[in-house]
Amino acid sequence: PQHVVLYPLVSKSLRNIAAGKDPLEGQRHCCSIAQLHEHYSLGYPDLDELQKNPQPLIFDIEVLKVEAPGSYQQDPWAMTDEEKLQAVPRIHKEGNELYRQGKVQEAAAKYYDAIACLKNLQMKEQPGSPDWIELDQKITPLLLNYCQCKLQCEEYYEVLDHCSSILNKYEDNVKAYFKRGKAHAAVWNVAEAQADFAKVLALDPSLRPIVSKELRSLEARLREKDAEDKIRFKGIFSQ
């Protein structure tokens, strides 16, 4: 048995890792004793109780699997800056392969990890500096891939936010206009969708067949919605 005063914080970090989160999420840059006093709750009742009443602990460790040398893939939070930069192309490729297999949610998670690596590096650069811009230009295609996954998952407002953030910096990004147009159309922002599709055509007229298809689909949905509304309102006024 071993009396471990700081174990609740360690356990919280391990649980964050198991959930795919940053192990230091919610912690501030201070010593462990200060952390203990500063956290009213660790988010887990059993850890809160152990923090209030420290007790001797017995640890049972079970080996679940053995990784072959070189096969273990670190989570982004555990990588050095150089490892993050080297990992991005690999993670991007894995995301593309998952997307081709139709595993959209898993692909989105891969793109998110790659973006997180680059965002972490970008935070250390002066905004607008050459290095910051270079990293941002690597983030943009990953973010567009992520938005494509979110379109298929029908998470349209997230697509609107991300595409708008891209277009605030890169006003000529055709893919961002197109994906934002599709998201606007999906949530019945008709004027905004039409404006985005018009911008797509202005930037790349060769995309007219694709844009025309999207506009026809939007018009058909609008007619269908109008017909449904007429039936619904007719029933209301006839009562």
From TrEMBL:
The keyword Transcription regulation does not apply. It is found in: Cytoplasm. Keywords: Cytoplasm, Phosphoprotein, Repeat, TPR repeat. Gene3D superfamilies: 3.10.50.40, Tetratricopeptide repeat domain. GO terms for molecular function: peptidyl-prolyl cis-trans isomerase activity. It comes from the Eukaryota. May play a positive role in AHR-mediated (aromatic hydrocarbon receptor) signaling, possibly by influencing its receptivity for ligand and/or its nuclear targeting. This is AH receptor-interacting protein. The lineage of its organism: Eukaryota, Metazoa, Chordata, Craniata, Vertebrata. The gene is Aip.
